[in-house]
């Protein structure tokens, strides 16, 4: 299995209402320093069903890859909690990998 497919398998398991960081997924693939490779994998993904919007930066901030405000709106629609400063509240919404 390729590294990208390992990432896709993990992302597919993130449930609604939960989120993960690039670094968390890298650690779960067995390559703890590969958070950038996780990002490359998600950027290359062509599967519209894969919930890539549930993957965030380590500090819980969203990216503009989906368009301004789109990722946040998608996450809020799923019940993901945000802090007052606009970051995902990982203390509430972090996926535990199960």
Automatic annotation (TrEMBL):
PROSITE patterns cross-referenced by the UniProt entry: MGMT
Top-level division of the source organism's lineage: Bacteria
Species annotation: Lawsonibacter faecis
Lineage, highest ranks first: Bacteria, Bacillati, Bacillota, Clostridia, Eubacteriales
Catalytic activity: a 4-O-methyl-thymidine in DNA + L-cysteinyl-[protein] = a thymidine in DNA + S-methyl-L-cysteinyl-[protein]; a 6-O-methyl-2'-deoxyguanosine in DNA + L-cysteinyl-[protein] = S-methyl-L-cysteinyl-[protein] + a 2'-deoxyguanosine in DNA
Statement: the UniProt record of this protein carries the keyword Nucleotide-binding: no
Short name of any one Pfam family annotated for the protein: DNA_binding_1
Keywords from the UniProt entry: DNA damage, DNA repair, Methyltransferase, Transferase
GO terms assigned for molecular function: methylated-DNA-[protein]-cysteine S-methyltransferase activity
Swiss-Prot/TrEMBL GO biological process terms: DNA repair; methylation
Methylated-DNA-[protein]-cysteine S-methyltransferase DNA binding domain location: 3-80
Protein's name in the database: MGMT family protein
């Amino acid at each position: 299995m390729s590294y990208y497919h390992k990432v896709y398998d993990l992302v597919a398991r993130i449930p609604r209402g939960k989120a993960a960081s690039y670094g968390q997924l890298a650690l779960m693939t067995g390559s703890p320093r590969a958070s950038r490779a996780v990002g490359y994998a998600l950027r290359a993904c062509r599967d519209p069903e894969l919930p890539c919007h549930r993957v965030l930066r380590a500090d819980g901030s969203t990216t503009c890859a989906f368009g301004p405000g789109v990722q946040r709106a998608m996450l809020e629609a799923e019940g993901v909690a945000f802090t007052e400063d606009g970051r995902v509240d990982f203390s509430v919404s972090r996926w535990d990998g199960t």
